[in-house]
Input
Amino acid sequence: MSTWISDPLTRLRRLVRGGARGSAALGLCLALSGCLEGGEGLAFLTPRDGAADKKAQPKAPVLREVEMARGKVVIRPPRGYCIDQGSLKRGVSGFALIASCNSLRGDYAGADVEPVVMTVSVQPRLVKQEVPTAQAMASVLAPAQAIRHENGDGLSLIQLDRGGNAVLPGGDPKYWRGAMLINGQLVGLALYAPNGSSYAGERGRALILALAENLREASPLRLSPEQAAKLKAK
Output
């Protein structure tokens, strides 16, 4: 399995732990109520964290499952992938970086799954806020163009034609973004793959869908106030 992921993982950790620049435009959109129809709160697509950079360490602690938003969202990666404990951000919003378990432990030669990198960001839902559509996400992420849009089953998903290699050196320009709602929390997903990998395409779609399904299955079922009121009224 390729060892391309070693140095890029270090850089991505640094980006996500101090990436205020990447979220500036999305944060501005959040502040302007008319910026996007149905798109308030799209800042959750880009993690914001002012914590100090931390260099990658060999055999760093990895996790197979972690709770966010006081247990409302449980992140459980697909088989063969783990959560980088050093990337975790918890609080009002949350963030986690996911990669091959072996790669995160420093065993680059022994990885038995494709060395993709996935991210999960979590942010409280604004009042009556819906999941942004794939088209709304694509407009915020311009000038990248969406190759593919999908809306359905509570998940908005897009494949973008550029930008992946800017986040992850050695990665494919194409990458995936997704958005979903779990227990009143807006959850943003992203998947970056090696340059030329089929995971920048259809296989990546299958993997990010598997991640979304794992989050749904692992997270507890909690009724929203609106749902609870309807149930009580019956």
The chain has one domain: 6-233.
